[in-house]
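name: query_chain
kind: protein
chains: 1
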Amino acid sequence: MALRNAPFWLLVLLAVALRDSCDGASSHSMKIFYTFISEPSQGLPQFVLVGYVDDQLFSYYDNNSQKVQPKVSWMEKVEKEDPQYWDRNTQSVRGNEETFRDNLETLRSRYNQSEGLHTLQWMFGCELRRDGSKGGFHQYGYDGRTFLTFDKETLTWVAPDAQAQITQRKWDTIPGKNQGHKAYLEEICIQWLEKYLSYGKETLLRREPPVVTMSSRTEVEDGMETHVCQVHGFYPREIDASWTRDGEVWLQDTFHGFLAPNADGTYHYWISIQIDPKERGRYRCHVEHDGLQDPLDLELKGPTDSKSNLGLIIGCIVAVVVLGIAGICLYNRHQEDYNAAPRRNQAI
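structure:
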C-alpha cells in the first residue's frame, strides 16, 4: 500500500479529510487528535496523540515514549499549579491505547477487510469565536473517511453508512453519555482553552501587523495587467484581504493563494487580480487585521519591469504553494473529575 512507508505526519493529515475546521473563523481553539495505525513501520509510531491550541502543538504522546509531554515552554506553568497534570494525562491516554486496538480490529471485521494498513482517528475540540460565541466538534474517522460525527444540538451521533450505524445505535442508548459529551465541549473544554490561553498569552494573544507589498506585470498576449497583493508577517492567522473596485469587494478575475506559516510563527498570504490597465485607478488591495489600527487600502501602480515582476510573482506562488502544503494544520472528554486529560475512548 502506498501509505505503508509514509512519514507519520502524512497519516495524521488524514484528519484534514475528516475535519474542515482548520481554517475556520474561530479566534481561538483547542483541538485533540488521536491516531492509531494497524501496521507501524520503522520511525512510525502505532499510537499518537497531538494537542493544539490555535496553531501551536502544546502536547504530544506516542506509544514509544509512553508519556504525554509538553511541546511549548508555556505549558510548564500548568505543572506548577497542578503537579500531577502530566502523570494524570499520561494514564488517561495509555488507557485509550488498548481500546483503539480493539476498535480497529472490530471495524476491520465489520467492513469485511483483510489485514493491512488501516487507521482509526478520534478528534475533538472547542472554539472561542471572534463574536463571543462558542463551538465544538467530536468526530471519528476510519481509513481517512468520516465514521461518526457528534451532533451536540440533537445529542445524537451521525453515521454515514450501515457499519457506522451499529455504533451509533449503541452509543445513543447509553444514558447520559451524549449529554456528557455536550457538557465537555461547551463548558469544560472552553475552561481549559481559556486556561491555556492565559499560560501562553505572550505568544497566543500577540498581535503582529501585516506588511503589504504589491507587484505587477503586463500580459504579452492581450495587454491586461496582473497585480499581486502580498501580505507578510502577520499574527494571528485570521486576516481579511480582498480586492475592491470603486470601494466595493470585487471577486471577478481574482485568485487567492494559500494562507501559510512562516518559520517565525507568523503567516503570509496573497491575492491576485487581472484588470484592464485603463481601469487601474478603480482598484485597491484592502487588508483588515487585528494587528492594524485601521484597514489598509493600497492603490495599484503600473508595471515597472514586467520580466522581473513576473519572476517575483512566480516565485511567490511557488513558495506559498510549498509552504501551504507543509503548513496544513494537523488536526480532535475528560476524566470523571473533569481535569484536562482527554477523556476515555469508547468501545465501538
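note: Confidence is low (pLDDT under 50) at residues 1-11, 13-26, 306-339.
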